[in-house]
Amino acid sequence: MANATDVAETNAPARKLPVEANIFLVLIGIAVFFEVLGWIVKGDTFLFNPQRLLIMVLQVSIIGLLAIGVTQVIITGGIDLSSGSVLALSAMVAASFAQTSDYTRAVFPMFTDMPFLVPVLAGIAVGALAGFINGSLIAYTAIPPFIATLGMMVTARGLARYYTKGQPISLLSEEYMWLGSGTIPVIIFLMAAFIFHIALRFTRYGKFTYATGANVQAAKVSGINVGRHLIKVYTLAGLLAGLGGVVAAARAGSGQAGMGLAYELDAIAAAVIGGTSLAGGVGRITGTVIGTIILGTMMSGFTFLGIDAYIQDIVKGGIIVAAVVADQYRQRKRAKV
Amino acid sequence: MKRTLLALAASAMMTTSVMAENIGVSMAYFDDNFLTILRNAMGDEAASAGGVEIQFEDARGDIGKQIDQVQNFVAQGVDAIIVNPADTSATPRITKLANSAGIPLVYVNRKPEDKELPEKVVFVGSDEVVAGRLQMEELAKQMGGKGNVAIMLGELASNGTRGRTQGVKEVLGSYPDITVVEEQTADFQRSEAIDLMNNWIVSGTKIDAVAANNDEMALGALIAMKQAGIAASDIAVAGVDATPDALASMKRGQLFATVFQDAKGQGAGSVKAALKLARGEKVDTIVWIPFKLVNKENLGEFLDK
């Protein structure tokens, strides 16, 4: 698919649109759809409300962080099912180091009132460690990424529950909760997106990532240490999930073992909607960001229109598939021209 | 048949030898916070009744495991079985097992989905509908009987969501001036509730009260309000469960009200019912343990529970 697009681009240099243009059109289409329905149903605007535009991104920033990680994993030809559970575990660990001393039942009474960097680093480190284990398993035991990360998904969720026997960890310091307030989650999400966009497009790390996913044999022959590179990619994905957990706990003012349930699937959906191919070798962070915002737009749109809670997921599933079909169709058409 | 005979023989032996009751309990989960309080209350009740042997098993949410455990209890010839169903739709099998062995059976906390419970099989629990009613009554009073209410639904397939929401709506039937302006799900989760409340606030619909199916979502709604600069006094938010976080929030004057589900009452009630049945006394098919409203006035008695 990537080759076909490249060919189309060289044949018609006048229309040299990036691949993301397609999926961006889908986003615009969905937004306009809600705008029109908004005027019909509620007599009110959907898009021309800056508060709502912010919320559309805010509510998916945490899923977006996971999606940035899973995009890179999928580009290498793998998959990461563990991100939602790793998020929960990191949220629990981070929260346990962010409690204030006026809470009488703190998890670690000797570690209350810690400076805000302690819980942040603890959460991120736990995520990175989980990712490192994923990567090592895949690189050295050669089990499929689906299985390795499925195992981590179950284990990390179990650990998150075991950590406090299912009790939420609450009363976190104001300083720590700042990370989850206002537009901070959006800023963290977009900054992470920017960093990894640069890393994938302009560094050796990015070249290796695409090369591994496009053709493992060729990558090995050309001297890439594929095993070591996979460990890097999965560790970074875990780190991003850890960061997601840190932000999630800060946002809710509480670490909870049930956090991020099924987020891994939303993250994968965001990546795939954004044009990342599950076959590997193809995908961009910009596309994933747009894919993530499509999910956020749908969430806000459904609530805005007051669509019955019982049918929202039915519609959401349909739109996800339709968005990808529309994207593929447009790409194919362009390739033919 | 053999097993039944064996069970009868065993139970006959036990009752004649020590005159002490033997109760087998199969819990859906050991590690669930609420169910742990309930389980401890069972142990306490059994200890205070004197000479009652109580044995706990953890089904770990697995209905197959739970059925095995009940079969083991039957084989052991216990005097009564208490089951906290791992899955309410599978209870008819358990009912049949205990009933054919003639052993009294008490379901606790989660309502079994049997069409009809036979003799010597009872349910001890709380009526979710009542929780919704108590919550909405308190909100309606605060609203002065008029205004806009938003309902935050829990996980859509859960009994709690259906029952509590039904209760809220029953109350609204007698308040024609209160309108339900929003009704959406946040899956019982705090984070999801923040996003949902954000979207509601942005929609510009005037909301006077939020009736959330659980406390976690109520707390999420309050976080969203705080970030949007809306005071807790402008929108009355009520939850259900009376979790420690919720009570702490009430103490700070944030959460308006919650509803206490009496885990201790349910645990003690189930053991009491089991003992009565084992002694051949009659027990109502359904024993309701009342929910209790928690508001500003009575917050103190719940804070140290």
Automatic annotation (TrEMBL), chain A:
Keyword Transcription: no
Stretches assigned to coiled coil: none
Transferase recorded as keyword: no
UniProt KW keywords: Cell inner membrane, Cell membrane, Membrane, Transmembrane, Transmembrane helix, Transport
Transmembrane parts of this sequence: 23-41, 53-75, 81-98, 110-131, 137-156, 176-200, 231-249, 285-307
Localization, UniProt: Cell membrane
Any matching Pfam family: BPD_transp_2
Topology with respect to the bilayer: Multi-pass membrane protein
Protein name, per record: Inositol transport system permease protein
Species this chain originates from: Pseudovibrio ascidiaceicola
From TrEMBL, chain B:
Keyword Signal in record: yes
A UniProt-annotated Pfam family: Peripla_BP_4
Residues making up the signal peptide according to the UniProt record: 1-20
Domain of life: Bacteria
Protein name: Monosaccharide ABC transporter substrate-binding protein, CUT2 family (TC 3.A.1.2.-)
Keywords carried by this UniProt record: Signal
Domain Periplasmic binding protein: 23-282
Family, as annotated: Belongs to the bacterial solute-binding protein 2 family.
Record's keyword annotation contains Signal: yes
Stored InterPro entries: Peripla_BP_I, SBP_2_dom
Organism from which the protein derives: Pseudovibrio ascidiaceicola
Locations listed in the record: Cell envelope
